[in-house]
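Supplementary Methods S3. Complex input for the oxa(dethia)-CoA-bound model.
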Amino acid sequence: MSVGFIGLGHYVPPKIVTNKDLEKIVDTSDEWIRTRTGIEERRIAEDDMNTSDMAYLSAVDALKDANLTAEDIDLILVATVTPDMPFPSVSCMIQERLGAIRAAAMDVSAACSGFMYAISTAKQFVESKTYKNILVVGVEKLSKITDWSDRSTCVLFGDGAGAAVIGEVSEGRGILSYELGSDGTGGKHLYQNSDDYLVMNGREVFKFAVRKMPEASVNVIEKAGLKKEDVDYLIPHQANIRIMEAARQRLDISEDRMNQSIKKYGNTSAASIAIALSESVKDGHIKDDDIVVLVGFGGGLTWGSIALRWGK
Ligand code: UT7
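Predicted complex, serialized as structure tokens:
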């Protein structure tokens, strides 16, 4: 059985915060942020919009795209490290709001790799014929755990949500291979402290990412029986353009075939690959039968990659 994407959606809050805006609150510059990270602006959710609100809006978009109703959904998986509260889960909150009365629901915690983990988990349930349609959401409201006085982190992150419906697709299409991994010894480099703020040793995470992103990309291409020349489009986790470049160069892919939504959204953690995929399909960068590689890394430390042939 081939398992893949049968619908996609995303939601980003309307409020844009530019690098120039951040110059007013911390000692930074538009030039530093652009050259060191590739970020030009990010979206920040208002106080009255929580993680579950963004998750819900992206899910509605994905269900519409899949031509399904909420009652068709068997399982909801939400990847996030910024839930509204520790419990109930964001997945249960949107289960109620969508009216997905037949669905089981749970959150997945793998930081920026969360969407890769949740998609790979969804694939198992469809393949085993346990469930037919699975709603997967990657969502973060990182602004609520951002220390707005710490220039080394506050310039990097943004809020948003991306959603996908996973189900059976035609033979040869869908998810061809995946790889998931973790290294808890690096957990100390990226975590939430007792004040609830995100703390990061940027250099250590950077070193890990420039090694892992290219490696995990090549591994899934090989596992799928493909060569790097077969890859049409690359969606790396949008954390830093220099890290993304390391993956792109290893795969010998031209710049126009790598998603660079980091420019407008910054790093949205578990939402980044989900938003990028939804946008890339909707704007025509990804077409039926294209070979696409998704690759992410993040806190944990964790990583995950997926090779797929696009199309239902
Ligand atoms: O989603 C997964 C999580 N995160 C990541 O993937 C992040 C991975 N790491 C990175 O992307 C990079 O390490 C950063 C963008 C966080 C930092 O870039 P860097 O090139 O590694 O800079 P650095 O930490 O080595 O700092 C260089 C200088 C330092 O000044 P000194 O000590 O050389 O005088 C920093 O204090 O840049 C300074 N700096 C800043 N300057 C202006 C740090 N943040 C800023 C800032 N504006 N916002």
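The mean pLDDT is 97. The first strand starts at residue 2 and ends at 11.
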